[in-house]
Structures are given as C-alpha cells and as structure tokens.
Write the structure tokens for this entry.
Amino acid sequence: MRTLTTFTPVDVASDIGRVHLYLRTGQRTAFTGDGTVCDISGTSATAAAECVAEWMACEAEAGAAGDTVLIVPDGDSSLLDQALRRRGLPSLGLSPPSSFRGALQVLPLSFAAAWTPMDPGKLLELLLLPRPPMRRWAARTLARALSKEPGIGGPAWQLAWERIEARIRDEAARAPDATGARKAAAEAERTLDRWRAWTNLGRYDRKEGMPAPDAVALCRRVLDWAFELDAGDRDPLLLCVVGSARALIAALEALGHSPVTALQIDRMIDQAIADGLPDPTCHAQEGRSRAVSSPGALWGAAHRVVWWGFAGSGASSPRFPWSERERAALDAAGCCPERPHTTGRREASHWRAAVLNARSLMLVRPELNRGSEAGPHPFSQQLHPLLSHASNASSVRFVAERLYVAERVPLAAREVVRSSSVAVDLPRARAAWDLPAGLVARAQDPERRQSATSFEDLLTCQMRWILQHLAGLKSGGAREIPKPERLFGNLAHAVAQVAFHPGEVPVPEIVRTRSVTALDSLLPRIAAPLLLPGHARELAFARQRIPDALASLSSILARGRFAIEGLEVEHERDFGMVKVASRIDLVVRGPDGARAIIDLKWTENGATARHYELAEGRAIQLATYGRLVDPDGAGAPAGYFLLRQQRLLAEEGSPLAHEEITVTRGLADTWDAVARDSARLAALAGSGRGIAAGVAGAQEHLPEDLAFPLHPKVCTYCDMTRLCRSLSAG
C-alpha cells in the first residue's frame, strides 16, 4: 500500500525509537523505561482522564517544548475537558455529532406526539426540552399537568391552560394606553393559538397515516418556530432544524401520495436529521495541546501523542453493504467503494503512522467503557511484544489509580505531586433545628389552614411538615409519566364521579355500565399511557377491575340503605385553634339522615396498613374528614373503601362497617388527639424549633405525652431526609 507520509528519524536508544525500529524492521529491543512510551490503564475512564490531566499539568508547569496531540477516537473529549478545566488547562473541544440535541428533537417529537393513541411521554419530552416550542414557564405548567394526569383535556390539563391564558392576558393588559392594549391583546390571542397548536395532537392513526398537507403544515410550524427563535443569530442547531424541516417538506412533496404512514415519516425524519450536529457550545481553547478524532489525522511529527481510549475494535468503517451484483454495477459506473480488506489495511496504516509520528507516546486504555468492559485495541496486539518485556516495567505500565494512594508518582518522565485535601465532614444528623424567622412567622400565621394530609405529616414528623407545608419544598425529581398503579387510582376516582350521582344509590348493573362508558371517555384525558401498545394487560385490568370495584361499592351502600350526598366535596371549618380544609371523596347519608364518609383508596398491598390505622387509632384522614362533616357532634362515621380489594373497612359499631375492626381508639377520640397534638407541635414550630422525628434523640425534644408516638419507619417514604440528614443517623 503506497503512502505519501515520511517519518523523521528519532533516537533509537530511546523507548519510542525502539518502537519505531520495531514497526519498521521487526527488530525487538527491551524498553528501559525512559518515559517516552507509557501504557496507562484505569479501572474507569474518569480515573484515566484525571491521570492524563495531571500529567499534562506537569508538562505545562515544566515549560516543555512542542505541542501535545491527543487522539480521541470517539470524537468526544468532554470527560478529558472537565479534568483539564479543573487544572486551568485549555479544553480540547471535541464533540461527536448527535441527533438527540434539544432543538433537533422538536421535529421528531412533534410527529411522535401526533399519532393516536397519543403518547403523553413524547409530549412531556417536547415540553421539557431546554428550548421548548413555547415560553418555558408555560411548557413547565403543562408538563406538571401531564405528570399529574397524563392525557389531553382532563381537569389538570384544563386548569393548566386556564393559568397560562390568565397570565398571558394579564401581561397584555399592562399596556400603557388603549391602542397598545388592543395590539397586545390581539398578539396574546395569536400566541395562545400557536401554543395550542403544539398540543392539539394525537389525531392520526399510525397505520392509516397522516394527510400529506397536515404533515407539511406541522413541518412549517417547526420551521417558523426555529426561525423566530433564531432571530438572525444563525444558531447552528436551529439552522439544522430549519434544514431538516425543509428537507422533510421536500421529501413529502416528492413522495407524491397521501396519507403518509408513521413509518414513512419516521424514516424521512431520520434521513433529514441524519447524524445531527456536534455540541455548538463545545469549542477548543488556545493552548499547547490539540485533539484529533482519528489516528489518520496525524500527518506530521508531534512531540507528544496521547492516544485516549486505546481500547475496543478501533474500526470506524461500516460493513460492506453491497452484493456482488451491486458491486459489479458500481464498478461499471466508475464508482468503486472501498472493500472491507482495504478498509482494514487503511486503518492499520493510520495506527502505525500515528505512532511513527510520535516523539513520545502515551497509550491510555480505560478498562470500562460506558459501563461495559472494553476489549484490547487491535494495534495493541502488535505492540504487545514490546510493552510486555521491559527492564523497568513500572516506568512503562502505569495504573491510573496510583495517583489516589501516593503523594509523588513518576509518570512519563514527569513526577506528579499531589497533596491531600483537608476532609470536611458533611453536616451530621441532629434531632433539633433552629428555624429561620420566615418559617416561624408562617407557623404563627392565624390564617394558615391545615388539611388531612398536612395533619398526617405534622404528626408523623414535625420537621417534614415544616419543610413541605411551611417552606413549600417539593421533591426535586424530574417530571415523569405516572406508573400504572397511580393511573388506576386516578381513573377510579374520576369514574366514581360519573358512576354515582347525588341521590339514591344506583343498582350495581347501572354503576358498571356507567363506569365502562366513563372509562372510554376518561382514558385519553387522564390515563392515555394505558392505551399505548404494550399496556394491553394493564388496560384490560383497568376495564375489568374499576367497574367491578364501583359496582361492589354500590351493592354495599344499597344494603346499608345509604344515599349519595356528594362526591369530591370541599369542606372547610374553623375550629378556633386551627382552620381545616379538605376535599372528601364520597359523602353518604344513612337511613336515619346521619352523614358518613368513604375515602376511596387504590393500593396494591395496602389493606394491612389501612387495617392497622383504624385498629391503632391512627386513621388521621378519616378522623379529620369525620369532624369536618359533623363539627358539632362526635364526628361523622368514616371508612376506607379499598377499590382493588373491594373491601370497606370501618371501626366496630360504625354503620359503614362492612368489615368491622376492633379499635383501641375511635375516630372521635382520634380527632381530639389530632387537634391536641397538632396544636402543640405547630406551637413548637412557632417558637422556632423543628424536630426531625427520624433522628435518634428526637423524643427528648418533643412535647411530653403525645397521643401519636414516633413511628419506627418514619423516614422510609420521606423525600426530605437529605435536608434533615436523617440518612446519616445511626
């Protein structure tokens, strides 16, 4: 194979000279370990990157002559750049092309969310992009609604749009004069129409396809968005979006038929976006080092060559895709694609040329690559006879993790000196915390309202109540589509509002019929994921179990001669020491006119927990609901209806007691305990003290004789443990 590359001779007495001599003549001479050749291995790529960055920092401090060339075969220098920046060294700036960069995903996600059954996850991804197709606050508002009720048109979705519309129109109303207000109002309506178009999706069947004009209109919407967002700045990603949208429009017009199936559009999008673009924010910085993504890019002599990622197959060319007949046709047309054996010879010559151009060589091979074991590089087999026989093996072979255990480490003719940092312990868990003045003021606010849920949090862990209900902190997890179990619960509550109406309890057959009809209407609005392929089992389960559960509830209520008074009823009362407001699932009225409460629960394995709450007098929700409905008496009877298990649990002697439970404390006494304990714990917060119940010693700081003792697993399901440090307790 002919080559135009010429190599400058080096001192054959050096290790790198011995490598050159071996590659040219096959003569094998043992290494002496002079630092011109170093083989670095690291358990992880992070350790290897730290090792390379430390060595390059030593080179810079020593004022070494010549440049350093880093070969980064996968074209991604992000890990190395992070390590270099921590040492004040210039970044290499290599970034591989990707079609998954934020702006490039607007086009495929817009089409992915257009098919029916609609995939709320695709719409959620679109709304959570770094640059969504609407203002970020509006996109996040809709994303929260999707996370709560994944579908289009449900109560959460409608409420989100009401908030968005109110904010946009409020902004328009701030215009200084009447003319400006009219223009602002008209622009606000146009803005809302554009935003609605992005979420008016899930209308086309994947197999039957989308009319070509509608597909072109969707492309033009993406095109207009990219142009508007770019505003003449010539952002590479947005220009790529423009080019991809135009290419897709051209492909749709060239296709010449309508409708176009989802498979056809997906393939055209893949071709339009192709490999995408490198990260446009990733740039190489000025310095004495540079990076190339292929060994073949090194054409001339380099003082130092660092071959990063010297592992794996090393192959960059795809397999030969043509048949013999196709190859003959290509040859006849004068198009001669490279044969696989020629590709292999070319790559081998590139590897060899990169080493022959080096005046000092560092081979870096992480043992793990993205979590999987990295095999040896093919070229390492050719170098193995030299690397495995060295008179001073420790100077040639180096383990990156040595930097973590030794203060002075010789590495490639340099000495890396590292000193231990002073260890700073994380804040330790403590039971009692001093609260800032702002939280104290909120705890003392006489207008503050409690709910059944906030009572549970307060009596379980006062610190959790402070963080969640006074400070307003929430779990920082990413927005996501709920799991099927939560969707079943949401559906069951929504279906119950359709199946039952105030008045006489319908017979089970009517309830079941109403439930089946309501399910078909509610599924795409609040539980659309169940309609997707792959969820047939969960969908069949919901269609069977929810109507059966509500029919069973109607049968139980009919036997007790109850009537329906209301569903999802809002109740608010001022009890003097505390104001309470909650929404109650189901309020019924007995034959004697007395009211009772049923709290609907969908739990897979929750029957034991609910039974325990009633038996041990810890049914805080039921006690609160009962006193809200009957504030002047002993509290209305209340019970849990477990939808999945079709069981109604209530305390012994209750008119709701389909399954009677012997209790140590009734709901009336439970409410008295709730009111007393919550007042004392809220007053403790008002005095400036917060108590983390999950930390050892918390009992010493709590008021004496609390009716609700600390639960041994108080921290099991809490999202605030990293703040109060209870994870480090014990």
